[in-house]
Amino acid sequence: MTSRDHREKAIKKAGFNTFLLQSKDVYIDLLTDSGTSAMSDRQWAGLMMGDEAYAGSRNFYHLEEAVQHFYGYKHLVPTHQGRGAEHIISQIMIKEGDIIPGNMYFTTTKLHQELAGGKFVDVIVEEAHDPDSLYPFKGDVDLDKLQAVIDEYGADRIPYIAIATTVNMAGGQPISMKNMQELRALTDKYGIKIIHDMTRVAENAFMIQQKEAGYQDKSVAEITRALCDLTDGATMSAKKDAMVNIGGFLALNDDKLFDEARNMVVIFEGLHTYGGMAGRDMEALAIGIAESVQDDHMKARVGQVHYLGNKLLEFGVPIVKPVGTHGIFLDAKAFLPHVAQDYFPAQVLAAELYIDSGVRAMERGIVSAGRNKETGEHHYPKLELVRLTIPRRVYTQAHMDVVAESVGTVYENREKINGLKMVYEPKYLRFFQARFEKL
Ligand code: P61
Fold first, then answer.
1. Share in percent of the chain as helix, strand, coil (round to 5)
2. What does the pLDDT read at residue 434?
3. Nearest Cα residue to 302 out of 282, 280, 326, 278
4. Termini Cα distance of the chain
5. What's the mean pLDDT in 327-347?
6. With b meaning 16 or more CB within 10 Å and e meaning fewer, what string describes 2-18?
7. pLDDT of 229 higher than 90
8. Whose CA is closest to 60, among 291, 293, 278?
9. Whose CA is nearest to atom 17 of ligand 1?
10. Rounded (10°) CA dihedral 70, 73, 76, 80
11. Hey, which bits of 302-412 come out as E strands?
12. Closest atom of ligand 1 relative to the 368 alpha carbon
């Protein structure tokens, strides 16, 4: 616990950017669910069984077995985390001038596509951009939008479509199985591959089980496998669903692509049987994958997120609806209608929440969206959000109560909050390190 005075000084020193706070100054840390979950006793036991051989570690083969069994992909290339896999897939599949459609952008994914010479085009359903739409599968692809992109650029210029389960920037929103099946049929017609960002695939599977007709009697494990089976390969940040502190991989079915990826991983990550991970980390990950698809775990995990969401809805706080799976997203445009998007409403709201209670959240709005590569102008995303991200197996419902009450207090005092100006802007992924001052 810290005093308000202490927190005011800390956030000012951090340039009003919650990424620049020291964790010792944070009370409840909802910055991210990435690498912040609690490993289980079994995962910790796995750490003790690290085989740290440079080549051919036993743990690699355990991980390969888990990926093949639970996700169904044929080949595994371990990486240090998700963006390591994004780097490799982008470099081997994208040529200058290529188009990569996707169900909403993700920061690191899009940057790696651009660095490889590609251009991301958003083909998510329109409802995903509306915080109040109750559409149950806001991660769905608008197939007409995708068809229009294919017609405009030609399938030759589309190496793959990037599909995330769930969609982080939309509020942790799931894609439906029906939409995935239709997408598979459409892409097959044109020979376009589907590369799956499977970072939170088990959470997506749980939402299908809860909401999509015909899946109530299927297990999260079965639905997870069925989602993966509709795709050609995947990038994984194992720091989320799979509950390890560090790790990730690229998984591929195509032998030739695998060959290229396996060759590239040795340049940037490490040998192909460890990528960027220690043997012990691969063991903990293999165990975490199995735990991530357990129905009871998922019910408790998503249930806790919904507990917080329902509290905030009771307080009348504007949030993205329906509630997704990994966090609650405050709608900063509705929360602070008097702060124009140019003055970073979500950035200042995250700072004010920290000052109120020491709860750390993350901006997901104009700062995260960055600038248009061609014009240099800010992107102005429709969604201007603050993400309260819940780590797995870490906090109690009592912590959620503290968070809800603090958000409620900030909401009551919202009229006193003014915007920010950006005083330092790094070139890449600016939200991580940008600095702000009060207007
Ligand atoms: C997060 F502010 N997510 O949500 P890596 N795909 C997806 C992710 O959610 C993801 C990655 C790929 C983070 C960490 C983070 O703008 C940010 O293992 C759907 O982090 O390299 C990561 O995986 C990348 C936070 C990343 C951010 C980028 O908190």
1. 45, 15, 40
2. 98
3. 326
4. 28
5. 98
6. eeeeebeebbeebbbbb
7. yes
8. 278
9. 107
10. -60
11. 327-331, 359-360, 362-364, 385-389
12. 16
- Is 240 noted as a catalytic residue in this protein? yes
pLDDT of residue 8: 98
Q: What is the Å distance from ligand 1's center to 332 Cα?
A: 21
DSSP letter assigned to residue 175: P
Torsion of CA 220, 225, 229, 232, to 10 degrees: 100
Q: Is the pTM of this model over 0.90?
A: yes
Residue 124 bridge partners (DSSP): 141
Question: Per residue in 70-81, pLDDT tens?
Answer: 999 999 999 999
CA–centroid distance, residue 239 to ligand 1 (Å): 9
Environment class of 99 (CB within 10 Å of its CB; exposed 0-12, middle 13-18, buried 19+): buried
pLDDT at 215 over 90: yes
Task: Let me know if 389 is a catalytic residue.
Answer: no
CA gap 35, 23 in Å, rounded: 14
| 333 included as an active-site residue | no
Asked if residue 164 lies in contact with residue 108, where contact means CB atoms within 8 angstroms, the answer is no
Residue 173 amino acid letter: Q
Would you call 190 a catalytic residue per the annotation? no
At 18, list the tokens.
């919650």
Give the list of residues 6+ apart from residue 250 with CB closer than 8 angstroms, or none: 76, 77, 79, 85, 88, 89, 233, 234, 235, 236, 261, 265
Inter-CA distances, 242 with 20, 81, 200, 320, Å: 26, 12, 8, 25
- Residue 373, pLDDT above cutoff 90: no
The rounded distance, in Å, linking the Cα atoms of 284 and 44 is: 7
| Binding pocket residue ranges, ligand 1, CB within 6 Å | 32, 34, 81-83, 106-109, 164, 168, 197, 199, 237, 239, 248, 362, 368
On whether the CB atoms of residues 269 and 275 are closer than 8 A, the answer is: yes
> Averaged over 237-259, what is the pLDDT?
98
**Shortest-distance Cα residue to atom 8 of ligand 1:** 199
Going 296 to 302 to 307 to 308, the CA torsion angle's sign is positive
